[in-house]
Design a protein that fits this description.
The structure is a single chain. The protein has about 400 residues and is of the alpha/beta class. It has 14 helices and 14 strands. The chain folds into 2 domains: about 150 residues, ATPase, nucleotide binding domain (Nucleotidyltransferase, domain 5); about 180 residues, 2-Layer Sandwich (Nucleotidyltransferase, domain 5), CATH 3.30.420. The strands form 2 sheets. Strands 5-4-3-2-1-6-8-7 form an 8-stranded mixed beta sheet, with helices on both faces. It has a 6-stranded mixed beta sheet with strand order 11-10-9-12-14-13, with helices on both faces.
């Protein structure tokens, strides 16, 4: 049984076809620069050579048409017929309060997704475009929406309500939603398997650390708090995003720099974070190289990021009354031993005792805590595509 997983960004499309018998991808690829000059599809299938197609791709419908064509291509494809695809799972960034779990897509769901556009204006429109394209070209194939926000719908009002007049929540839905839910859910379930304990008995802190980054407190398999808020701008300082700020800073900068609302939004999302502090790059690998060469601003950016993560670990351990497992995942979390070591330094009083030798790994699923550490420290490569495929299968089988 094969599931197609689609992740539509504003100008990109990532995809995988996963064989659910083996839980391994048999084809995957990336379409970049949709609607822009220099559009390109990079496609690879199991035991086939990689294919790169440079052609005009005007919109997501054209992108999906091209992807589906490649999936059944005699030379480069992985399928004989599109009918082999049992269902399609779509990553949808924002489900608001309407969706606390994944759903089979129907007209009512589509209307609700459109209603959530104002909460995620950069993300939900391409998600919807991808769904419509698949509905047009694969009308008999079930379509499922899997939401970034759904996993965090279990957090309590005391965690998600902001210190604003309550009617702003009632009128506009202003509250903490949280994101990266699919990743946090996947790695927490893997942690329970690795530790050979029921997830219902575990207190877990999951650190999804990449260019975008968030922390989640997970008790008994349910999210009880998370660092991202109303939008993915909140929480940790990230690659280009500022993270949490004194809100007065926003109006102060707007007045001094004569920024419009759109300019300020672009500034906070794309020109701040590690890029803004270091002045070098939003890529933590570049920043780490510069720091080793003696660049003080690069080192400062790393120190700020590590300190931010450490603060959230402490806060969430307090919120849950302890922690049994600390998880590092995503690009930085999986592949930056120095970052993990810096974050865990002097955390022994929380029961977090890192083994520096075991920690010298990248991209492996492994426990890097000392044998006698009360809290296990796990490196778990995330697999959001598989999580989406599993939820899609569960709903459609």
């Amino acid at each position: 049984m094969k599931i197609l997983v689609l992740n539509c960004g504003s100008s990109s499309l990532k995809y995988q076809v996963i064989d659910m018998d083996t839980r391994n991808p048999i084809a995957k690829g990336l379409v970049e620069r949709i609607g822009l000059e220099g559009s390109v599809l990079t496609h690879s299938a199991l035991a086939r050579k990689k294919e790169v197609i440079k052609t005009e791709i005007k919109n997501h419908t054209k992108a999906i048409e091209l992807v589906l064509k490649q999936l059944v291509d005699p030379e480069y494809g992985a399928l004989k017929d599109l009918k082999e695809i049992y269902a399609v799972g779509h990553r949808v960034v924002h489900g608001g309060e309407t969706f606390a779990k994944s759903v089979i897509i129907n007209p009512t769901v589509m209307k609700a997704l459109k209603d959530c556009i104002e909460l995620a204006p950069l993300h939900n429109p391409p998600n919807i475009a991808g769904i419509k394209a698949c509905q047009k070209m694969m009308p008999e194939t079930p379509q499922v929406a899997v939401f970034d926000t759904a996993f965090h719908q279990t957090i309590s009002p005391s965690s998600y309500i902001y210190g604003l007049p309550y009617e702003f929540y009632e009128k506009y839905g202003i509250r903490k939603y949280g994101f990266h839910g699919t990743s946090h859910k996947y790695v927490s379930q893997r942690a329970a398997i690795l530790l050979k304990k029921p997830i219902e008995e575990l207190k877990i802190i999951s650190c999804h650390l990449g260019n975008g980054a968030s922390i989640a407190a997970i008790r008994g398999g349910r999210s009880v708090d998370t660092s991202m808020g109303f939008t993915p701008l909140d929480g940790l300082m990230m690659g280009t995003r500022s993270g949490a700020l004194d809100p007065a800073i926003v109006t102060y900068i707007m007045c001094r720099e004569n920024f419009t609302v759109d300019q300020m939004n672009d500034f906070l999302n794309n020109k701040c974070g590690a890029l803004g502090v270091s002045g070098i790059s939003s890529d933590f690998r570049d920043i780490e190289v510069a720091a080793k060469q003696g660049n003080n601003r690069a080192q400062l950016a790393l120190d700020i990021f590590d300190y931010d993560v450490k603060q959230y670990i402490g806060a969430y351990a307090a919120a849950m009354g302890g922690v049994d497992a600390l998880i590092f995942t995503a690009g930085v979390g999986e592949n930056a031993p120095n970052t993990r070591a810096s974050i865990c330094k002097n955390m022994e009083f929380f029961g977090i005792d890192l083994d520096l030798e075991k920690n010298k790994v990248r991209g492996e699923e492994v426990d890097v805590a000392k044998t006698n550490s009360r809290c296990r420290v796990l490196v778990i490569p995330t697999n959001e595509e598989l999580m989406i495929a599993l939820e899609t299968l569960e709903l459609t089988k």
